[in-house]
Amino acid sequence: MLLLALCVPLVTAQGSGEGLTIGFSQIGSESAWRTAFTEAVKAEAEARGINLLFSDAQQSQENQIAAIRAWLAQGDVDAIVLAPVIESGWDDVLQEAADSGVPVIIVDRNVDSDPSLFVTRVSSDFVHEGRLAAVWLAQATSGNCNIVELYGTVGSAAAEDRHTGFMQVIDLFANMNIIHSETGNFVRTEGKAVMESILSSEDPANICAVFAHNDDMAIGAIEAIKEAGLVPAQDILIVSVDAIPDIFDSLDAGETNATVELSPFMGGPAFDAVVAHLAGEELPKWIPVGGGLYTSRAAYDADHQ
Amino acid sequence: MKKLVGLRGDSRLLWTALALFVILFVDRLISPTFFDIRMVNDRLVGSLINILDNSAPYALLAIGMTLVIATKGIDLSVGAVMAICAAVAVVLIKNYEAGATEIYYQPGVVILITIAIGAICGLWNGILIAFLDLQPIIATLILMVAGRGVAQMITGGQSPTFTNESLAFVGRGVVGGVPFPIFIAIGVLIIAILVVRRTALGLLIESVGINDRASYYAGIQARAIKLFVYMVSGMCAAVAGMIVAGEVKSADPHTAGLFSGLDAILAVVIGGTALSGGRFNLVLSVMGVLIIQSLLAGLYVSTLHPTTNLVVKAVVVLAVLLLQSPEFRRFITQPFRRAA
Hints:
The structure holds two protein chains of two kinds.
Chain A: H1 2-13, E1 21-26, H2 32-48, E2 51-56, H3 61-74, E3 79-82, H4 91-99, E4 104-107, E5 120-123, H5 126-140, E6 145-151, H6 157-170, E7 176-183, H7 188-201, E8 209-212, H8 215-227, E9 237-242, H9 245-252, E10 258-261, H10 267-278, E11 286-288, E12 293-294, H11 297-303
Parallel strand pairs in A: 1-2, 1-3, 3-4, 4-5, 5-11, 6-7, 6-8, 8-9, 9-10
Antiparallel strand pairs in A: 10-12
Helix pairs in contact in A: 5-6, 7-8
Chain B: H1 12-30, E1 38-40, E2 43-45, H2 47-70, H3 78-97, H4 107-130, H5 136-155, H6 165-172, E3 174-175, E4 178-179, H7 180-198, H8 201-210, H9 212-217, H10 222-248, H11 260-270, H12 282-301, H13 309-324, H14 326-339
Antiparallel strand pairs in B: 1-2, 3-4
Helix pairs in contact in B: 1-12, 2-7, 2-10, 2-11, 2-12, 3-4, 3-5, 3-10, 4-5, 4-10, 6-10, 7-8, 8-10, 11-12, 12-13
């Protein structure tokens, strides 16, 4: 009888996770992308009938650990989804979760704990995003292009990995070179300031394309290119990463060429992982999520119905 | 002129100007077209114009910061105030774009409201400091931390964009080929100089900075002076916030003005205003801003890896500060003098 009672929620959980209670510890709301990510997870949980306990850590690891301990103490969660603020310092609390038999799924950023302490990690593949941008650019220019790279915040995984992936591809082409690489810290105004300076010092005819580590810097660069009397997306090709709503306005206006999606839709794969784990499936330690390259709003909408 | 900018035989102007010219000269070595200015679509384009344009919001912050520091205070909150004011302006103007006809959504009124919000932020700082006797660094730290949260609440965590050209003009308008922010910065600088040097106000600010209690007993309204300088700083931050928002037609509560306050403090220090209060000079503070922006412009066009930026910036700032120090100049010229 007890066994049957235990089995029932598992059976109904197959596929959707309906009836499960899942704690989601989010980093905060520091960017529009992060907010979209939170909304996407909440929407996914509601669509699946999952009871989501949401905790906003406001950029503090202490808050995240406190939230997880509270969930474990109350014994009311079937699983925990954790978007960690930083990589280190998770061993103790993950061990406590393991001791309580509550599976933990890491989303977005990484943790440096023993992989046996969590089920899997669901995240974007920044290196792949850089590769996608480079591949598009190589194709659009037949492998001939002098590139201005607008670097993200130096040292951030997103910036370093996108640069690495981008270089992996353009190194294959003798006539593709980065002629300027400068940081705009992922910020719109700084992207504009950097591009203005480069356009003032470099013959614009010598610049074939801009690769921006995020859409915001690309939007800044578009303004600088327009002010310099050039036509963005024609005189200078522009490819960036994120797929934020604003970049689609620029695509509609023909002022940028392509964007690689940094998927905020990590809730679905994370909940799938919870369900699969509870059903006894063995999962890989990393589940990379989505991130196609889009050159129009229509193509993006078609993929996200 | 020398008397007006408050130098009276001070050699600081010379050394600061020299530092600026050296940096511009190095920029010119890095990029042969650095001094070129050409006309594109009725707008002057060139590195020197970019430097002035990018300096404008920082110059405004530095003007407010100079007055604050002259009273022995500091205003860490200006970056957060920029974010709040940018958010207020953009959220209000979006109502106007959506067809709202109320008076407080009209572009001109939005600009005035935004400046008033900046003044209120400054008033908050001023009250904490002048009446509740909080340390300026703590009082303004509160708004620095909370302000970005306020800005995020105003925009709902998003980075709203707008299309209204009147508000955008503050940040990207062009008058006679010259970007409008440059006129704003020069205008505010001239007004500020006239007010502090042609009235007794400058003297009162200096006296409060040197010893606020003694000033109080001498009949100076030290509290009123402090309220005034923090409000000026807040209003300058409000205009800087609108410039930054106008430049890219959006308000980003997360990053607008981030670390701007520290750059403004750096510029004020390069300009020789003492953090211990008293002596101050607005023109030199603005030259400090130009030095930082000329340095950045050079880094942008150099082929150095971005990781080197902050170190190069620190080294150059240190060099400029040493160059200005009479003690240091005496120290390095000593061996030559002895030989002679």
